[in-house]
Specification:
A 4-stranded mixed beta sheet has the order 1-2-3-4, with helices on one face. The protein has a single domain, classed as STAS domain (Transcription Regulator spoIIAA). β3, α2 and β4 form a beta-alpha-beta unit. The radius of gyration is 13 Å and the shape is globular. It contains 4 helices and 4 strands. It starts with a strand and ends with a helix. The protein is an alpha/beta fold.
């Protein structure tokens, strides 16, 4: 089992690495809430390029992080989202939620 990590890389900036799966997401959610809670900035950025694999639980975690940030009046932006994760988001009608450009993605199919 590959563990998934959320690592601080600067003030308000984080990087996720590993496998965002059903088995890893609950622990990552608990650890991430404690980590994100201490951030003083109103703007957060999470780099997703280090994700090795994911499933629908990983997508659900991204939604939970967005909701968490919204309820605390923080702006959360995901950067370098893997293409397959973007496809999963669009397939679940969440592309707009993550600011994905559906026209560009449709051209790449």
């Amino acid at each position: 089992m590959t563990v998934c990590h959320l690592e601080a890389v600067g003030e308000g900036r984080f990087r996720v690495s590993g496998k965002m799966s059903f088995t890893n997401v609950p622990k990552l959610w608990e650890r991430s809430r404690r980590t994100l809670m201490v951030v003083k900035t109103n703007s957060l950025e999470i780099d997703l390029a280090g994700i090795d694999a994911f499933d629908s639980a990983g997508l659900a975690l991204l939604v939970a992080w967005m909701r968490w940030a919204h309820h605390r009046s923080k702006v959360l932006r995901f950067v370098r989202m893997p293409a397959k994760l973007g496809e999963l988001a669009r397939a679940n009608r969440l592309g707009g939620f993550f600011g994905l450009d559906s026209d560009r993605c449709a051209r790449n199919r």
